[in-house]
Amino acid sequence: MNLIALGGVIGAGLFVGSGVVIQSAGPAAVVSFLIAGLITVLIMRMLAEMTIAKPALGSFYVYAREALGNRAGFAVGWMYWYFFVIVVAVEAVAGGRILQLWVPDVPLWVLSLGLLLLLTGTNMVSARSYGEFEYWFSSIKVVAIVVFLAVGALYLFGFWPGAHGGLTNLVSHGGFAPLGIGAVLAAVVPCIGFYTGAEIVTIAAAESAEPKKAVAKAMRSIILRVVLFYVGSVFLVVAIKSWDDPATAVSPYAAVLEVLGIPAVATIMNAIVLTAVLSCLNSALYTSSRMLFALTGNGDAPRTFTRLSRSGVPRRAILAGTAVGYVSVIAAYTSPDLIFQFLVNSYGAVALFVYLSIALAQVRLRRRLEREDPDKLTLKMWLFPWLSYATIALMAGVILAMALLPSTRSQFWLSAVTLALILVGFEIRRRRGRPVGEVPVEPAPVPDEASAAVRE
User: Fold this and answer.
1) Is residue 453 part of a domain?
2) Which domain holds residue 254?
3) How many domains does the chain have?
4) Residues 392-430 pLDDT 10s
5) Is residue 66 part of a domain?
6) CA distance 376 to 366
7) Which ranges constitute the DSSP H helices of 176-245?
8) pTM metric for this prediction
9) Which of 13, 111, 129, 374 is a Cys-bridge partner for 96, taking CB atoms 3.0 to 4.6 Å apart?
10) How far is the C-alpha of 230 from the C-alpha of 223, rounded, in Å?
């Protein structure tokens, strides 16, 4: 569970996408990642409080539904599902492009579909199969980051062969914040996107032996490690390599390894990024299927997705996400600049909408638990309610910034269209009079034990 929490955060965005943030904010990108990390930690603490007090299959979908109403729950569940099925497509295409570097004669769509088939098969076997794969994927990523931090620190202190040491790169190319404080704050928006995935641990907890203990331990450990891995590694990048070097924008970690004189830099980084991509793809398939499975429990999704295999896996829900991934991969091949680009932009702010809903739900559920069952609050949000209110304000500010900044405006509005279509779907469902189930308030059964499921 600890590695699932860490693996959900450490994605290809850190290894590659961080270069874009560094180019837009300079060395002060460290501050951008720190602010985004603190916001994410606060959201995860709020989610952990609810998960430990009221474990439920579907996690924050259930909490949003109970605290904010059926419409909000429907929107949160489907937004999160949509977010991860698009992640499936994006990561499959990214993985295919990396593989093409080694097998250039094989078409991109063939490689992408091959990766989808491989990890779909893995998820179809059992939840344990997903966990095993994610354990090893996350282990590789964590080891890579730890080694990078170690050798980077040796370089800065002058203990690495040929190292000059020192921190002059932090200020010698226009200062620490050469593009201004506004650029630093604007860079927080994409940084939060890089942290998305830590919440997967609360979904996976429903299928663990001891969900309360697993979530509490994972959330406590992730706080320090998120700050250390993201902020620490980005600090090393801007301290060792000048922020305005073109190589830093393309692949910041590879650029640092070149300075350190590590042989076969390109191969090493491609292998690490491919591992990160496969990890994200694996998690996206798992998460989208479990969220769709949870949606069926309250009539928010067709009951056909409730069916389980003999091993307790919602295979139809997995195939639903995979099918969207297949279509998106084909779109990336046939219409990369129109359909696929639309899909990529249409989910950019969706995770932020979900995070804001988590924060709003926590405030309401905390008040209710304090009145009705305070003994369940074994892990609490810090400085409640003021820090919860501050977190809501910060998330609202990030979303507003995304709507106003030219670089993210199109993503915001297309994501708003996605939300609008989901709300239209809710109205259609409501007017057709579909039955609405009760929100589970006791620990939800894992798929293998779900009494509502119909065995295939």
Assistant:
1) no
2) 3-432
3) 1
4) 999 999 999 999 988 889 989 999 999 999 999 999 988
5) yes
6) 10
7) 181-186, 188-195, 200-204, 211-226, 233-240
8) 0.88
9) 111
10) 11
